[in-house]
Amino acid sequence: MKSYEAIEKENSASFTSMTQRISFPRPDDRILPDRILCQSPPQQSQSDKENKVIGCLLGLAIGDALGASVEFRPHEYLVEKPVLDLQGGGTWGLQAGQWTDDTSMALCLASSLLTQRRFNTYDQMVRYKWWYKKGFLSSTGQCFDIGSTTRASIEEFCQRQNILRKHFPHITEERIDSLPLEEVRKVREFSEFCGLPGQAGNGPLMRLAPVPLFYYRQPEEAVQLAGESARVTHGDEKAVDACRYFAALIVAAVNGEFKDQLLDEKFIEKHRPWFKSQRLHPEVVAVANGSFRRPGGYKDGIRGKNYIIQTLEAALWAFWSDGNNFETGVLNAVNLGDDADTTAAVYGQLAGAYYGLQAVSSRWGRQLYAHKLLICIAEWLYFDGNQNQSGASSRQQRIAPQIGLQTPKNSSVGIMGYDKQDPPKAVSHKNPFPPEFNPHRPKENQRLDGSKLPPAGKRSGL
After folding, report:
1. What does the entry list as the binding residues for Mg(2+) (predicted)?
2. Which CATH class is domain 27-424?
């Protein structure tokens, strides 16, 4: 086993070059997203595909923000008081345009891809931990909105990091978080995949967009890695396969396929090479085969619940029935009620990838919290995704670990800077509505040593 000092020395050259291109604030800096300054990557005029990439990430955040104030509200409430615009207050007491865990976790995933310049599940879990414990990339500076399954998996990951501390003694938590994936994988008793069978909440789907956006030119890679991105927190095959299927839809949309091709009952068969020899779960296949085609929407059984199959079905229903209008679709998704922000965020990913930036941002783009940062991160996902297509697979590249964490606090080097104005103290919020019982949630979560994890969080099963 290499010492940490040897690992740092081995990666020092890559670290030096990376600090010249991008960095994110340290979690301990507590920099709010709207205070992060971002410069667009060097490129020529914006292409149609880049517009779709930006539209996808922005669509996710807009859907999240539209649904945030009515999260947990039942459909009956929204029939009487439908959401028609961005609005503050409500469930979390946010300002109009602020977003919740859906966008925060997506940005954690994007920051990992951009910092590592490859797919690194250990680094992804580290960043989710930062968000959970320190409010990293949260719109309020705190983790105020988290599902029970996601929380349990992050708590389990924190416990498992104690195994790494035994193998790398006398180093700080910061350095434990910075370990390269290759070194982590040498510790056989450790795994960053903390999801358990039976965990089929919609958490992996709500944060998914950065993976297919980064790998849109490598469809097989995008589909495979989308499934792996789910496994770190959710172990059920339905969750994994829902992410694989939805990633394929996003890749196809970015690459210019028409709406009827995306919603074709034979989409999976027509894109079989993307899924290799792996079959999808029958419940995912049922959705792909058209279970979302219900003209009556809620009256016909479409539900905005936190079970990943229902979320997938509801988002596709909203896309199928939106009359080729993003505003119509995203509001219909929100007004299904219940897990309103996530249903709309999932719709926003696909609709944004299909309709593009202009359609998504025309009404709400400038009102969206930290919208400039979101656009800039999407531009870098597109740029780095293109750069990583040449040479060796980006899954195999050896890149210096955790550059954002190691970047000097007061550094002015790189394309991202920080506004050093002290952020306002974030307000914590509690869920005023009890989460509904989810029969698909496992009866209990267990740590690696077999001990029970207490239930926690705002949404059962997410």
Report:
1. 100-102, 339, 341-342
2. mainly alpha
